[in-house]
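Researcher: I'd like a candidate sequence for this fold, 241 residues long. If you have to choose between options at a position, lean toward the conservative one.
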């Protein structure tokens, strides 16, 4: 997660999460390709307004585009139907399977774009604080979730360090599972040590429920405008397309 100066970054994280979840529920509830494609375009507009540069955005979307093509092919080539269009060996494409493939692949890609929009415009600390103040999430669960998010870049750096150490010592594994255990075991050990240090630090600072907050997100008029506009547009697309 990261935060930038875009308009979507100014929206309250809890409101933004609830709004995007509503759009995802609308996607799940419809089986019409026109509605799904319209919501995909709507999600694409959200990604375009997320503040990322076009080159970085296209680079991030390459793996998901491959997943889109793979999902489309699997649904189309192995689906059921009566009106046969093309067949070769085990592959059999029908009009029904082709329509279903477009629906599933488009819905999946819309989910990806909505998720990227949220991740690209949300700061982890503000998100957790918003869950505490707006969603009434228990403080201990919220700070545990925040600590877990903070561990992700630490894990990436630790894995990179372990790989470099193995490369310097010329340690190579014959089987992939040997490499997995060689990296995961020291990573698991250091994670336990870090978690114990965090627990001791929280206890030493008298971590409790009745505490003050440096960041206290609030729901503003812009948040309500974003919520009403998005919900109205998604509902209108669902009902009238």
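Model: Candidate sequence:
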């Amino acid at each position: 997660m990261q935060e930038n100066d875009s308009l979507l970054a100014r929206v309250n994280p809890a409101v933004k999460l609830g709004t995007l979840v509503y759009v995802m529920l609308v996607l799940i509830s419809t089986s019409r390709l026109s509605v799904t494609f319209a919501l995909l375009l709507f999600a694409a507009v959200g990604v375009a307004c997320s503040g990322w540069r076009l080159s970085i955005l296209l680079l991030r979307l390459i793996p998901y585009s491959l997943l889109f093509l793979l999902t489309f092919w699997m649904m189309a080539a192995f689906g059921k139907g009566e009106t046969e269009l093309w067949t070769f060996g085990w592959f059999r494409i029908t009009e029904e399977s082709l329509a279903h493939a477009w629906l599933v692949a488009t819905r999946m890609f819309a989910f990806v774009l909505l998720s990227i929009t949220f991740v690209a415009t949300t700061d982890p600390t503000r998100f957790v604080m918003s869950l505490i103040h707006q969603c009434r999430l228990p403080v201990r669960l919220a700070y545990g979730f925040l600590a877990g998010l903070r561990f992700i870049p630490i894990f990436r750096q630790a894995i990179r360090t372990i790989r470099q150490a193995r490369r310097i010592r010329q340690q190579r594994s014959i089987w992939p599972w040997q490499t997995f255990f060689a990296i995961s075991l020291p990573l698991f050990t250091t994670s336990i040590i870090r978690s114990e240090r965090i627990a001791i630090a929280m206890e030493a600072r008298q971590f409790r429920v009745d505490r003050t907050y440096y960041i206290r997100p609030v729901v503003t008029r812009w948040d309500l405008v974003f919520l009403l506009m998005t919900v109205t547009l998604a509902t209108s697309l669902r009902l009238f397309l």
